[in-house]
Structures
1.
Amino acid sequence: MRCRFDTIIRIAVVLLIPLAISGCISLRIDKIQEGVEIFPPKDEFARGKTSLKEILSCYGAPDDLVDMNGDFALHFRKALYRRINISLGIPLKNIALPNPSIGTTGNLLRYDTVVFIFTVDNVLKDIKFEKGTSRSLWEDYW
Amino acid sequence: MKRACFVISILLAALIGSGCAVFGRGKDFKPFDENSLKQVTAGSTTAADVTRLFGPPNKIVKLSNGNAYLYERSIDKATGLWLVVLTFGNWDKQYDRIAFFINNENTVTHIGSSFNAETASYAMPF
């Protein structure tokens, strides 16, 4: 029985430590995602040949549609935002007025984007693709 | 001893329960019906038919060879979890979209559609 009691005390202490330091240290991780996965354009998409109908049947409705003085562009995009916040502090509000603390936050918003530019005859003129979310999170941030 | 065990058990339960979770759901609603697309045929359906079936578009884009009518609605789902010193937040937003390309004779020439709003999900940020 004594042994069991000691075990409970140990577990309680381990669990109480985070509670005791909850005002001193905190870690927050956030993720915001908007839009579905953007796939790279197929190899068979060819400038001067591929039609608007083929692109629409493959990618669906665009996020945005822009007139370009004759030509027009379809814009498909996925946005991915990540945020990490770490803060350290000494909660002295109840003891003294100064409440020293230090915190750091990192925010990074990246995009996967494909843009198809069409002529007035609905024929593909140009393609631009970028997979922003596949790059290193660390390198992109710094 | 039994009383001590009981008190510690209560404290542990309170400690574990001190975290908190939040789930949220938002909707940017536009009452268009996916099945109405079956009534739209490129080359014969007119711009008036489109607005009769789908209502006024969210956006009209003027193109040099006509217009484009864009319809959009979305669902977003948010998840939050607080565990004493750790906080996790996740927000996922997905869209249903339809684009009608209409020529200068007011006839639909191309249709693009994607219905992903229902794929928005509750999740953790890792």
2.
Amino acid sequence: MLEFLADIGYERWVLPALLLIPLGGAILIYVARIGRGRVDDIANAASARVIAFATLLVEFIVSAGLWWTFDPARSTWQNVVMKAWIPEWGANFVVGIDGISLMMILLTTFIMPLSVLGSWTSVREKLPAYYALLLVLTTGMIGVFISLDLLLFYVMWEVMLIPMYFIIGIWGGERRIYASIKFFLYTMIGSLLMLVAILYLWIQTWQAGAPTFSYDSLLRTIDVSRTAGLLLFGAFFLAFAVKVPMFPFHTWLPDAHVEAPTAGSVILAGIMLKMGTYGFLRFAMPLFPDVVMSPAVRTTMLALAVIGIVYGALVAMVQPDFKKLVAYSSVSHLGFVMLGILALTLESVQGALMVMINHGISTGALFFLIGMIYERRHSRMIDAYGGIARVVPLFAAMLTIVSLSSIGLPGTNGFVGEFLVLIGSFRTEPIWTVIATTGVIFAAAYLLWAIQRILFQPVTHAENERLTDLNVREMVIMAALVIPILWIGIYPKPILDRMERSAAQFISDVERGAAERTAASRMGN
Amino acid sequence: MLLQQVAATTGHPLSGTVADWMWLLPLLPLLGFVLNGLLAVVSVYRRGPADPAAESGHGHGAGHEAVHADPAHAGAHGTHHHVPPRHKFAGLASIIGPAVLFAAFGLAVSIFGAMSGASHLEQPYVQRYFTWMPVGDFRIEAAFQLDQLSMIMVLVITGVGALIHLFSVGYMRDDPGYPRFFAYLNLFVFFMLVLVLGASYPVMFVGWEGVGLCSYLLIGFWFSDKANADAGKKAFIVNRIGDFGFLVAMFLLYANIAALDFVGVSQRAGELAPAIVTAICLFFFLGCAGKSAQIPLYVWLPDAMAGPTPVSALIHAATMVTAGVYLIARSAVLFALSPVASLTVAVVGALTALLAATIGLKQWDIKRVLAYSTVSQLGYMFVGVGVGAYAAGIFHLVTHAFFKALLFLGSGSVIFALHRAYHATHSRADAQDMRNMGGLRRYLPWTFALMWIATLAISGIPPLSGFFSKDEILAGVFARAGHSTLAEATWLGIPGGPLLYAIYGIGLFTALLTAIYMTRMMLYTFHGPNRTGETERSHLAEAPWVMTLPLVVLGILSAIGGWLNIPEIMGFLGPPQWLHHWLDPVVGAPTLAVTGGEAVHLAHRTEYFLIGGAVAIAVVGILFAVVRLKPARLVTKDQAVPERGFARVLANKWYVDEAYDRTIVRPVVGVSRRLLWTVTDKWLIDGLLVNGSARVTSFFGRLGSYLQTGSVSTYAWAIVLGVLVVLGAFTLR
């Protein structure tokens, strides 16, 4: 396998290819339409989704090679490709991966073809546009995870936001306009501030005579005053905290999830929320370690993370709408990620990375299941169901397994992540961790209560008696998701091994940076 | 492929023997789960259309007439007259389900044989399979460990488990969810074996949560009834509160001694500061209180009786609920270091034993009597392990597994008979209420005789098993009240010695109550006139042999189980203290640590006196019940008047459920709904901040649009105003 990949020069072209393949697919969708007449023509529709699925399947297969070629022992960027972009500004096209981006790429390329399968029959209008947007979105998301140039990162960040805005706004539910505008404004405000911060950093390098957007050199050369550092971190913080979402920047999420079509919710929860935590891991914390490690900022962020865990779980418990319930549960899960990242122990950071992956799989699976039952019954309300385990046993079995993984039952993926986060965070932040651990109680409360009201009890609505169970396409989707749920739960070692060096690197970057800069500022005084 | 990776403890006396196959113990039931699960899914699956949206709303019910799993027709709860056809895979499931258990039991027995024959078993036999969670230097291994303690547990789980599986073949015979039932039951045994074989706390936690999951699924097995589904959910959530304690205890262990495997913990336990040990033990005990139904988390167990009766016998009496006792025995090294935590365990155990026994006095549902009895007996076990008599606690765990499984299966046999009778006559009467029973000794002679054996055993009548194990615990408490590290400690300001005497007193009094409520149950069920109904009576009959045979085996075990651990002073009965010696490598050192370095010894005269007292109390309890209770005066459930006064408080379980509901459940839900969701999320963040800032923005936008009127004179005035302001600002400087 490795020899074959080396023969075809895989390592040199794989990252640009991952950016270009989906764009090629999007173009193909439009090319295929030429000379076919009406936009909503059935042939076009069918060809659009087939092209999208085939493209994303190729994308997944191409990305899968990274699993083997990635060298867990190397601490430098891998598969780096660099091309001059705007030389006079010092902006370059630089991409490369470490263990963290590796797993995020694989998560993305794994979820995306499934999203197309999940949209197969539920999206019924403007198919070419829909699938083209999904493909552009893929490019944007991959781009965010591999950019090593801050301008390129910002561009990719925006490339990712806009298709999602349209996907919610056009193919969403009844209140889609409100939800999409809310989504857009929330994330736009954050990302514009981030752009200002990036430009500020760039101006610094420009004044020093060597303008650059390069992540690596900025990481080494950043030299800003304490106040400026706080403001710059604040700008990055807002952009990423909205995306995570951290309490109290989370209220766009329930609306966006509820109104988005199934694939939109899956991608939003499964991949796009990780952009926020990825941003903290890659940019906000390593670039401004002294700010993050200052007691006031650190305590505030820990507090917000832990409030998110408990608050998200409690509010999820009382939701009448199942999609909203899952949305609030995301606030809770991502709180665990933030806690793990902030606690800065190897266990907790590794755990946080695992929770990012697991949340993508499990919450993605939950949204798929909601979508499947919604297609049949046209309701997301929990009390529209009841007793359907008897009518649709396979659906019930899948919902139960996925819910159990979401509440972190040992033996499923959910446990591995949460356990590592908590046991690692306890070493540095015992009090916050104990409070966070109560989240495991509330998680059981909200999900079991919900699945009881959906699956168990007597059938109260006659129309539920006629529900049909999962079809083959839906079973393929669920099987694809349940396998990693169990695999990661039982044998997470290969994944942990691949991320370990990057997690350690992150910790040492933050700790060393904080120590150096705090010392430097003391000397300055 | 698994075997090749096994890196066994080198040079362990058990390596190379049949004990190398211990990984197969849990794998057998797991195999059963997979097979039965496939049967369950295959039999009910109806494929959905390729495009669900196109099909919906057309009201077509193709396949609707297919296998229709209506739990209203189910087993012991059905009330309809027509008997649904047996599940099409029932035959296959009845072979797979029990067969894997019997195979596992056979393997367990042969491993036990190998262990009995081997010498120098001071160290556990640890098998490492793969690294589960590696992070830096921190590695949690997927590993099992076999030692004397886990061996005893494995024998009980697979042995009693196999009998209960066999019983289920008859009891669940006509249930539409037949393969699903065996799938869950097999899965339970798998997790239970992982729990007792796990070589570290995290692996044990896999089993710990897994059995909770199976309990949840099996309590809610007839999930179409809301009460059953509620009970399952309650069990899971209350258990999760306990799991919170288990987790925090693990965090504390890891943060302080960086060890989570049992071998490592026992090696490094001495490095822990006393306050940390106490905290670890108390958090572990919170976990035990959840799993083993102790105050304040016992409330789920009585409700758990909503599950099918074999489930109650296996999970909620014989095995899972004793996991807490196992956890403390397993962590004896830690508990022995903390007298305060140990006394807490003993006090909570004693109070739980007493509280549950009082409630048991006034229950009418036969399974609820047994449920509270289980809570009460678990309290005894905690008294045992709490005072550092770890072997005694495990001894009572084993005998209790025999006689309580027998009692539950016996009640299952009774319920089965009543249910069939009511089924035949289309009656909707309650098949579990003792007021609808009475005089059943004539119709169910085997069940009658066997349940009396169990009743006498649990009451502590010699020479039945319960007598020995209960006596061992009480004698242990009495001895340690005189001299031990516990007697010298203080607990919340109370000196340990008097506290232990008080616990002993509570134990004796609870024994009296136990004899009373158990005799009451037997009298109301089997004696006096029959109240089942005129027509129903002719349908009452003993269950088929698959159900009676397990009862007979358990009856024998309940009778002779005491020989496992005969007291020294009764050495004339056989080799004394076998179990004590057997468990010595595991819990011997901690036991000695509690008793201050020397084995506990009571004067023979004291010991005879204690035994005599305990037996006398049991006899008094039984006689009191026989004399005072009048089964002949009972009326059936629908004619009965509710209790009054104190009896009503007991019948309503001291209103603890209601109190929890008012003080915890409703406030949490209320605060979440009103304060967090409505006020914080909707009004404060979304209303005020998000939409508010949007409104402010649009307000300024509109303000701006007023400025841009297009009228030149307005602009001129604005310019003049601006110039004046600027000039003014400069002149004022």
